[in-house]
Amino acid sequence: MKRLLRKICSLALVFVLSICLASTAYAADTINEDLGLTGPTNLFIDVCDNLFSQDSTYRALDSEGNDITENFLAKYQSAYHTGDYTQIWNAVKDSAISVTWENETPQPTHRLDVNGSASRSFYVLGTTKDHMPGTTFEMSYDVSGTYRYHDSTGEIFDCSDATLNITAFNGGALFSYELYNISTNSRIASNSKSVTFSASFSLNFIYNSYYIPGVSFWQESFGPYSGSVTGTTY
Predict the structure, then answer these.
(1) 56 pLDDT exceeds 70?
(2) How far apart are CA 4 and CA 206, in angstroms?
(3) What is the pLDDT of residues 30-52, one digit of tens each?
């Protein structure tokens, strides 16, 4: 019996180690200097782990912004448990799926006027079609805002404009990006108990010359990307 238990424990340990080593191998060499991403990065693996974790608040969205989390998790649960991040990465890339999650915000202190904040993150993959087709980049961005409300009534009386922040961009050393058509908006609900911060933008993915600094060979447009987050007082 003891031998059987030791064997089971050993097999379990080998399984866990194999997944960890596979994750490290996937992330070790997946950003090519002039070919973009060739597979899942450390950032993708971290997002993926959070999406598949129990009681996760991460959500998967299709290209139209619809929540497909339940179906996505069911379809790729087996791949995740075997450590096949490449299969999941290809699914996200080929179907233009994004992953989103709301960030923790500080709890307000109780006083006459209270400061509140809201922030949501988005992770996306983009792949070229017109230039060097199949060249892929990853990006994460935040949409956030702050607001003030009366502690006694919970009514919001002031808010900032939405803030857009690119928190990560990986595509290889020869690639860069520039944003355009940036639009931000904040809207307090009619009952003054919530405020929604929204942002949208497009970007140019730029392939730069290796030999001549400041000179680019081509650029391709992506987007528009968008996102919103709602802060509440209740």
Answers:
(1) yes
(2) 58
(3) 777 778 899 999 999 999 999 99
Rounded to whole angstroms, the Cα distance separating 194 from 203 reads 30
Residue 140 CA to residue 163 CA, distance in Å, equals 14
Query: pLDDT by residue (tens digit) across 62-72?
Result: 999 999 999 99
**Residue whose tokens read 């999406």:** 51
Closest CA to 48 of 84, 95, 12: 84
Q: Are 114 and 138 in contact (CB under 8 A)?
A: no
Question: Is 99 within 8 Å of 61 (Cβ atoms)?
Answer: yes
Q: Which residues, 6 or more positions from 182, have their beta carbon under 8 angstroms from its beta carbon?
A: 164, 199, 200, 201
- The whole-angstrom separation of Cα 206 and Cα 174 is 8
Q: Which of 199, 204, 163, 166 is nearest to 182 (CA)?
A: 199
Of 117, 97, 108, 222, which Cα lies nearest the Cα of 162? 117
Q: H or E stretch including 72?
A: helix 69-81
Cα–Cα–Cα angle for 143, 199, 179, nearest 5°? 95
Closest CA to 140 of 101, 197, 182, 86: 101
Predicted TM-score (pTM) of the model is 0.84
Residue 114 neighbours by CB under 8 Å, 6+ apart = 108, 148, 149, 150, 151, 233
